[in-house]
Amino acid sequence: MITLYGFGPGFGLPEISPFVTKAEVQLRMAGLAYRKEKAMPPASPKGQLPFIEDEAERIADSTFIRAHLEGKYGFDFDAPLSLQQRAQAWAFERMIEHHVYWALVGARWVNPENFARGPAHFFDRVPDHQREKVLEDAQFRVAENYLLSGLGRHGPDEDVDLAMRSLFALSVQLGDKTYLMGEEPCGTDATAFGALAGILTPFFTSTLRERVEKFDNLTAYVDRMMAQYYPEFAWKPLQQAAAA
């Protein structure tokens, strides 16, 4: 059986990491049996989560995990798509993972209130006399990567303004369809869902979340995907939460 290694549930989500979510949803899309174990990034062959173990193989990085599943098990995640649509889906995936994702990182890690509420608890087991320094170092490393991503070079709210261009593109692409590319799911839906759920979880408050909530089709999409791929998870529909 395949073993998927991730962070586990938290932040009001069935899985903390959007990349682990992507891999897990794709395993479920493919109907493959798997078990899930908690791990930390140093355990991974590439120092990041997710990674999987499949018999004698260990594969890290969600994109390479997908390629492994397609190659070994013959499941085509983009089977409903034309060649042009496959190219478009790949372009949207790159936009999500290299732009939208970093906006999520800024909202979780750079925002001091959200950092204290969420990511800071990754280090709760660090001895008291070391924890403050470890927290400072961790937040500094993430903030440095946020800067290198490009979004972190801009002033307050300017980074969100830029991210919203990509999120608007996602909303336009989705339109009134059930899934991003049509009426059947494709591989990029797992990517989009992971990032959007990470932004929209009510656990965190941010300007980014408040602005994304205005896209009714994106909030409805997250609710649909959650119900379809994580039916066992207690998730209050976003539109109900907004009305409460």
Please give a structural write-up.
There is one protein chain. This protein has helices spanning 18-29, 62-73, 83-110, 112-117, 128-149, 158-174, 187-200, 207-212, 216-229, 238-243, and strands spanning 2-6, 34-38, 51-54, 57-60. By secondary structure, it is of the alpha+beta class. Helix 1 packs across helix 7 and helix 7 crosses helix 9. The model has no long low-confidence stretch (mean pLDDT 93).
Descriptive keywords:
7% strand, 56% helix, 244 residues, single chain, alpha+beta
Kindly estimate the percentage of residues that lie in beta strands according to DSSP: 5-15%
User: How many distinct helices?
Assistant: 10
Q: Note the gap between the termini.
A: 42 Å
How are strands sequenced across the largest beta sheet? 2-1-3-4
Low-confidence stretches: none
Q: What is the H/E string?
A: EHEEEHHHHHHHHH
Rg, nearest Å: 18 Å
- The chain-level mean pLDDT equals 93
> Mind summarizing the main beta sheet?
4 strands, mixed
What share of residues is helical? 55-70%
- Would you tell me the structural class of the helices and strands? alpha+beta
Query: What would the principal axes of the Cα set say about the shape?
Result: globular
In total, how many beta strands? 4
- Give the oligomeric state: single chain
Provide the fold topology:
Blueprint: E1 2-6, H1 18-29, E2 34-38, E3 51-54, E4 57-60, H2 62-73, H3 83-110, H4 112-117, H5 128-149, H6 158-174, H7 187-200, H8 207-212, H9 216-229, H10 238-243
Parallel strand pairs: 1-2
Antiparallel strand pairs: 1-3, 3-4
Helix pairs in contact: 1-2, 1-7, 3-5, 3-6, 3-7, 7-9
